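Entry for pyridoxal-5'-phosphate complex. Fields follow.
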Amino acid sequence: MARIADIRSLRAAQRPSPPDLVRWSLGLLSYGRVRLSLRVDGGEVVEGVEDYWALLALGCRSAPVSDGEREVVDVPLEALGFYDEVSGEGPRVYADVLALLRGDRPTPLVMVKKVGEARIWAKLEWYNPLSLSIKDRTALNMVDWSSEDVRGRRVYEASSSNTGVALAALSRLYGFTARIYIPETAEPFGPELARLLGAEVVVKGGSTSELRPLVEEEARRDGAIVLNQFQNYLNPLAHIRWTAKEIDYQSRMGGLRLRAVFVTMGTGGHAAGVATYFALRRPEVRVVGVQPAEGSSIPGIKRQVDWPWGQLQRPREVIEVSDEEALRVSIGLAREVGLLFGPSGGAALAAALRSISGEEGDYVIVVPDHGVKYLRLYSEFLGQGSVGLSAKGPR
Ligand code: PLP
């Protein structure tokens, strides 16, 4: 007889490659149910290995198993603890930092603005504890699922800042040496924090795209691992498993009539994860990508040229925001509700405001990090007496 087993009590022979993992996860996510039980032998999964890995990657807590022949069970993911990891119950006491990282979900969703009959909700990603940004999710998933064990190794990565800080912090917890390559154009917090956390830091070049060949070359020379957030499917998978699922769960529990989610794009990791999740599970929700306008520079995000996430969805709509608009809108909101978003969060809000005029319902913006990291940028902007703003307040 098939039974439901705790997924942590099971194991399988070989870790799949990230492309296989993403393929199996998407299959399971789109079907939404496990059709056949996994055949286990002494805790080892011997048939249905694809479903086992996909259930793990999607954050399910249990799996249907049988000791003999596989059986038709047809259980929905919800009955296998699909939402457990993001449902945020309990006193928030954690035995160690890894338990905090893995267990302290979801990040908050707060209503920040009403425009006519439309409400804008901000998902505050600075509540992630290592880099105080959304990139903790990417870094954790890449390190946890890396096919090579990172312990005792050297790990090299190019980062606009936040992934680098998260990896620097994780290097202490997992016992690897992190070497982070950050462009000269980045704000000071990236190199300074990564160094403070014990990483080697190289500050060079004008962009992460420019740094990537150097990272590969030096990693080859030094026998280091490159996790490569720009092409590693564990990056978008982190956002399917956590960011998107949290938005789904929170919007349902909060009684939101969710119409659209606005996501900014750097690696495109969270855009791909959120767009894919909603396309498969709630296709009525639009996912809108946000990128800097031509000639504008907004920390952490860039204009998307090639889409590196082949089999994953790309936001069908893209809105462009200038750096001036992102900073202005961000400061305007801070002076209304007291929350200072980082500039990319300001860009997400600016895009939402532009796109929803005259509409009704609920809209979520993903706010990647907090404005305290960009004080110099904000102060300079205010100092320039920018349109619509003065040092005293919005006009
Ligand atoms: N905003 C900030 C501040 C970031 O640091 C990043 C990525 O580094 C993003 C937005 C974009 O996120 P993603 O890489 O998932 O596209």
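NOTE: The two ends are 70 Å apart (CA to CA).
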